[in-house]
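Narrative progress, year one. The postdoctoral researcher (J.K.) led the effort to move from monomer predictions toward full complexes, under supervision of the PI. The following entry was the first complex the group processed end to end, covering 594 residues in total.
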Amino acid sequence: MSRLTRTGVLRAVVVFGALAAFPFVFPAQWIVNIAIFTLMYAGLATAWNLLGGFSGYLSLGHAAFFGVGAYAIAIAFTHIGIGGSGYKPFFALPLVGIVVALVSVPIAWVALRVRAATFAIVTLTLLFVVQQLAFNLHHLTHGSQGLALPPPPFDVSTFEQPFYFAMLGVFALAFFTCWWVKGSKLGLMLFSIRDDEDRARGVGVRVTGAKVIAFALSVGFTGMLGGVWAYYIQFIYPQFAVDPLITIGAVLMAFLGGKGTVWGPTVGAFILVPAQQYMAYKLGASELYLLGYASVFLLIMLFLPRGIIPSISDHLARRRSGRPDEPPGAVASAPRATLPGGMAP
Amino acid sequence: MSTLKLDGVVAGYGQGDILRGVSLEVEAGSVMCVIGPNGAGKSTILRAVSGLLRPRAGSIAVDGQPIASLKPREVLSRGIVHVPQERSLFPQMTVWENVLLGAHVLGDRARARRRIEEVAERFPILRERRNAHAGSLSGGEQKTVELARALMLDPKLIMLDEPSMGLDPKARQRVFTTIRGLNETGLTVLLVEQNARAGLEIADEGAVMDGGVVKLRARGRELLDDPRVGALYLGAPITPREAAPEPTR
């Protein structure tokens, strides 16, 4: 169980301090724009990790809740009138997160009755259901015509900064929740479910409750990030707000950095998103950027197959214990139990 | 007063009965060892007591309180823990996390942390291998950690299903010494063991099961010398040495 070590706290203070100073040190709009999307994906991957990394339930449908969050803010603007633009939509984000989390509870309760590939397919189906709803609930979403949000009245020279800090705030909330969960009783429950759900039930873990809480927390943060994104983009369409590529991107980043770790998804996002965005800027016309992006991913998977953080942690642990490194691709040293889920109270 | 009493328990899987009227008493503070051939229903007794299998007939009581209809979690909260036959640790979790999970039903983190420190005093391996993945431990070490986890609830009855299975002789010896040591602290032990000699040697009482019922019951050492055990266990009269076959690997 992770404990609050001095090194861990220091690392978090340095990283979040640097992130807070970033738009003042690098004020160029295109750089801050990349940073906004980096923070968004860091938040999405961290939120996904709460469920997929900690409990082993690999959701492919998180973009559904990203879209729900995005439409919630957009509909609040256009239909309810939340009091104009400016900073007010940012204050509505906690409410968006709570509502998305609450709405997800019955969905989670049903979806989490199945496991592994079936769960992934159920969540993917949910994504397409939400996307179709976004197309068809025309009176609310304006369907394929898209929904416009009023332009924020921010100063042009620092237009990105409020969005940057809103993304940073939601990402920080997701990150520290992830950190807290990892060291908490909930984390212990989720890890035991990830290892062997039947066995976890056998030692008295309330598996359904733990999974539903993780699902709700995870999609709550996802919805909030969708809300910030919608306000930043200002015009949302169903195919972009509820886009499978959003989930896939977040999942890739969590795997790349190391799912089930606190820092892994952040590291994955901080490598992949700037790499993708930078190469799109520089090589966009030739579309070579896709090759470059894939190369970054493949190289890391080749040399650090368990993800960056777990691979480095293992390497350091082996150096401390004097054991040699396993070659890339070797099975992790911890063997899996070979017997099926033994249940014991 | 007996800690555990089974009276005419009938239980099984699907349409079939494995236990066909088991009656057994385990006295408080004693070690009871249940032996018998494969399929006799030894492990099924433990599953029925721990709530994993609901009896179709008969009663199970602990300190006079019926527990046959309780859920596994409720049985745990009554201080009855079950260490199953197969490896039951979570291989990707650390040793410390695995043991902490043993106190999960307490719902009191501070108490769990105090308790794990107490348990770690008895089992130094918990501190030595604290951050190691449980799956990287040897079989004997895993069994020790399982025992440590079972103690997290400060149980009054611990049920061990073939704790020596798959262990080398040295590790097996350590496990039986540990079990005896736990019993000396006042813990009641219900042990199911294929290694009849080793089990009966540390047991105050023994029971021989066959065909889903208890056929013989006596002091542990008396059973070792009882020729009827051989007849039930191996199908022929045996000498005491033959009564303790090595477990099949």
